[in-house]
Amino acid sequence: MVECECCGLSEECTPTYKMSIKDSFGGKWICGLCSEAVKEKMKQNPGLAIDGALENHGAFCKQFNQTIRINPKLSLAGAMRDIARRSYQNRNSTKDFCESKIARTMSCDPFMSCVKVQRSSF
Ligand SMILES: [Zn+2]
To answer: 65 C-alpha to center of ligand 1: Å?
Structure first.
């Protein structure tokens, strides 16, 4: 197990993989998510050195961790908002799904809930 130097997440990895990550990120081991974020950052700012991108992303992670730890309600509210938005989107896509595939999908849940909705509206 190695711990990400940006976000503190522990990940299991082989020594070879660990070395290759350390080689590409200036001797630091960072998790898959962070490495993607850092790579993305460098793509957006071609002038940015890897150290700068790492520092930048590390600060972001630290801030994120602190915000959650200090104010659990904040992250909870954010999570709830995400869930609400997602279920709203799901509802819309379920409706489309029902309308287009209603005849072919007899056994799946979106169909069942669609049937329920239709029955109650008739
Ligand atoms: Zn990380």
So the answer is: 11
Q: Collapsing DSSP states into helix, strand and coil, what is residue 1?
A: coil
- Shared domain for 26 and 65, answered yes or no, is yes
Per residue in 61-77, pLDDT tens? 888 877 766 666 666 66
Report percent pLDDT > 70 for the chain. Answer: 58
Whether residues 19 and 65 share a domain: the answer is yes
Q: Which residues surround ligand 1, an ion (CB under 5 A)?
A: 4, 6-7, 9, 31, 34
Last residue of a domain, one of 70, 89, 112: 70
* Ligand 1 midpoint to CA 3 (Å): 8
- Rounded to an integer, what distance in angstroms lies between the CA atom of residue 53 and that of residue 55? 5
